[in-house]
Amino acid sequence: MRAFATAAFAAFLSFGSIIAGPAAAAPVHGLSAFGALKYKADFKHFDYVNPQAPKGGAMALMGTSGKTTFDSLNPFILAGTGAELIDNSEPRSLVYDSLMTRAHDEPDAVYGLVAESAELAPDRSWVVFNLRPQARWHDGTPITAADVVFTFHALKDKGHPSFAARLADVKGAVALSPRKVRFTFDPKGAVRDLPMTVAQLPILSKGWYTKHDFTKPSLQPPLTSGPYRIGKVLPGRSVSFERVKDYWGRDLPVSVGRMNFDVIRLEYYQDRAIAMEAFLAGAYDFREEFTSKTWATEYKGPGIDRKWILRDTLKDNRPSGAQFFFINLRRDQFKDVRVREALDLAFDFEWTNRAIFYGAYGRTGSVFENSELAATGMPSPAELALLEPYRKQLPPAVFGTAFEPPKSDGRGGNRENLRKAVTLLQQAGFTMKGGVLTGRDGKPLTVEILNYEPGFERVLLPYMESLKRIGVQGTLRTVDPAQYEQRVKDFDFDLTMERIAWPNTPGVEQRAYWSSAAADVKGSFNLGGIKNPMVDAMIRAILGARDRPSLIAAARALDRVIMFNRYMVPQYYKGSHTIAWWDKYGRPKAKPPFERGVQDLWWYDPAKAKALAAARGR
User: Fold this and answer.
1) What is the per-residue pLDDT for 7?
2) Is residue 273 part of a domain?
3) Hey, what's the torsion of the CAs at 38, 41, 42, 45, to 10 degrees?
4) pTM of the model
5) Is 60 part of any domain?
6) 575 vs 497: which has the higher pLDDT
7) Distance, CA of 276 to CA of 458 (rounded, Å)
C-alpha cells in the first residue's frame, strides 16, 4: 500500500544580518527536530553499517510500495506512475543526492551529504546550507546552490501536491553563492521540521531540466548525482540501477558501508501469484511479504526445504501507520458519523484475522499504531489543554478513554455489532425496505469498494457480505493498477484500502493527509476529504511542539479527534517486516531501529553465491 510510501519531513542573528555579511549561526554537521544528535562532527560511519562491506554483485527485488507497474522515471509529479527507489521515500534515493540524509538509529536526525554543514537560526526561521566543493552530477559538473533553488521551486510549484503541502511554510530559497543556499521559513508555520524537510529534498539538475519538461512523465533517464545511475529500463516491467564506481560521495561518513551492490534491479509483477512463483524459481532475490496467507502457506519447494531461501521477521520500531478503509466524505451518504460507525461495525476483524490471516495481525486502533504517539487511556492534562477549547464541537467520546475498534467473538456471525450498525443507520434516517436500507430521499444506501489487487478480494468479499446483511448495497470494483491510481487521484471512489507509513517524528506531512487545505486538491493524500477545523488545530499543535512530550500530546490529541469522528474503518497491522531472500548475501548483525536496511546495507557474498549455484547445479 501506499505505501507511500514515507512514503521525512546557534548565534542570535537577524534575517538581515545574513544578507549583510558572512556572520551567521555556527555551522553544524547535522540537524534534528529537537536539537540532540547522536553522532559527533568527526564520526566515521553510522553504527549500524558494516564499514568493511564489500562492493559488487547484484540484488533483484520486487516493487515494494504497492505499485505493480511504472510508466515514468519522474516520481516527483502527479502525472504518470513513477518507478520506485528514485525519490527519497526509501532509506535514501539510489540516484538523487540531498543536502543531508537520515540516520536510521535516531528518530529524525539528518547529517551532511551534499551539504558539509548547516547554519540554523535560533528561532529556526532560516537555515543556510554550505555545499561541498566535490559534490558532482554524474556528468562531472558541480552541484550548485542554483540547483537546490531550482529544485525547491520545481517541487513546490510544479511537483506532486504533497510537496506543496510539505513546503507550504517555506517562504523562499536563495543562492547566496555557488556553494551556499538559504531557506527562509514562515515563523508562524512548521519551523521545527522545515530545516530537515528541505535538507532531505532530492536535488534536481537545473541544467538538465532547462532542456526537459519537468511536468511531463518520461522514461528518459535524467541527470542524477547519487551512488547509482539508472541503467536498463523495460517499461512497466523492470528498471536497473548501476552503482557509480567513482561516485563523488562514496567516502563520506554517511555513505561508508552503504550502497554495496553493483546492480540493484527492481522487478514489477501485476499478479501476486506470478510474483511468488517467480521468486521461488529464482527470478529475483529478495522480497518482503505483505500477505499473511502467502507467508503461512506458500513458501514451499526445494528452495525452502534445502534452505537456499532464508526467511526472517524483523522488528519494526517505526509507527506501523494507518491502514484503513478510507471513506470518501465527499459522498453525501457518508457525511453522517453514524453511517461511518456502522461501516466500522460491519467489519469483522476477529473472524478475518482467524480465518484468513492466520492470526498474523493486530487490529488498527490509531492513526499512529505501534508507537508512543497513539492515544491511550484518558486524555493527559497536556492533551486536554489542546482539546478543551473545542469541547462543544468535538464528539464527547474524545474526552473519554482512547478509541477502540469494535470487537466480535471471531466466530463469523458478528450479530451484536451488526444489530448496532442497523440501529445507527436507522437513527441516521434510513429505513429497511425489503432488506435494503433506503434514505429519506428514497435512494438505497450504496457502497462501492475500489480495489486493484485481486488477492485482496478474500478480505473484501466477506466485508461486502456483512454490509449486505445490514441492508447496504455493496459492490466490489477491481480495476487495473493504472486505472486505480487515476481514480484515487480523482477521488473517484466510495471506500478504498490504503496504508500510510509515518516518520518517527510526525510533522508537515500530517497536512497532506488530514488538513482541510488538502481535501480538494487533486492527487492529495487526504483521501477521505477531511475538512475539520479541530483536526487542523491539532496538526498545528504537532507542528508547533518544541519537545518530544509536547509532540506526543499533540499527536495523541489528533489521534482522538480523527478516530472518534470515524473517518476511516480501521483494518490491521503488524509491527514487523517478514522477509525472504536467496542465500547469497551478507548483512549487518542488527538492522537499524527505524529502517528495514536491505538494499542500502546488505552486500553480495561471493562464497555464498558460489555455494548456492553449486547446490542448484548452476
Assistant:
1) 36
2) no
3) 50
4) 0.82
5) no
6) 497
7) 17
